Amino acid sequence: MQLTLVTLGGLLAAGIVSAAPQYQQSTSNVHRITQRDLTGYDNLGCYTEATSGRALSGKSYSNDSMTLELCQSTCQGFSYFGVEYGRECYCGNNLNTGSVSTASSDCNFACPGNATETCGAGNRLNVYQTTGSGPADFSKYGSHGCYTEPNNAQNGRALMGKTTVSNNMTVENCADICAAGQYSLFGVEYSSECYCGNMLAVGSVAAPASDCKYACSGDKTETCGGDWRFNYYEFGYTPAPSSTTSSATSATSSATSTSSTAASPTAPAGYTDAGCYTEATGQRALTGKSYFDDSMTVEKCAAACTGYEWFGVEYGREVLLLWQHNQ
């Protein structure tokens, strides 16, 4: 039997894909867990994945009997946890660049371990934050880059906690204003405007750095947003170093830079590289088994796939395997 290798962000494969079960989607009459049901946590709602990589990158875990409580327990010690695609759990101390609030209807997969709970969807997470877990040190903050205001007027501003306008506005002044109000996020816009909040409104997304082009009214050496664009900061956030893109690049440009610099995988013996594939509609492309390793290689994935015809590597550190097709 000739095996075939495919790359899903490197999908490695061989054979015909058989039908795989999908996780049940939550229906409108199913009880939704509220933040009161998870003592010590605030329900932040449904979020997208980050611009490049995962929204929460501190720790990951998958279980075919996933529940909110199981993920909560797994993420003890982290400020955030999120459940995705029914069976996946992610932990972190901040939401990575590009992860933004989206419509609650986007998170519509029931948790397989408790169908009365909602566990995200494809590339969507139900995110929870420890109650009162504001940044430990308001003197430290990091930049997420340039962001848009929501494109729907009904959503209001991207940050709706507090608004201050000053002819002496600087990034530092805005940070002081929002820290005093115990807000975790802040942004400077249109030279003299400062906005504070604890979450981004639906529709606010990363924009090119060049869109934030106005000097701050109180310090011409600093940048304070643009027209319907703001420089977005988070207390306690440390941007991940990147040699290919800046933190202010858009989702499209970041993805392009990453894919253009990644080395082409070498097919292990017995496999053929079938190229780069998308995920499936409403489920993973490969659903037999999943495995995570921060030192992932194509060879490790191949070794883990004994007994399977297809294997795929994704997001740098994940392996997705499909049950073997009987010839």
TrEMBL record:
- Signal sequence coordinates: 1-19
Q: What Pfam families would the database entry show?
A: WSC (PF01822)
Keywords assigned: Repeat, Signal
Region called Disordered, residue ranges: 241-267
Limits of the WSC domain: 40-131, 140-236
TM annotation in the entry: none
Which PROSITE patterns does the record cross-reference, listed alphabetically?
A: WSC
By its UniProt entry, which SMART domains does this protein fall under? WSC
Q: What is this protein called?
A: WSC containing protein
The organism of origin for this protein: Glarea lozoyensis (strain ATCC 20868 / MF5171)
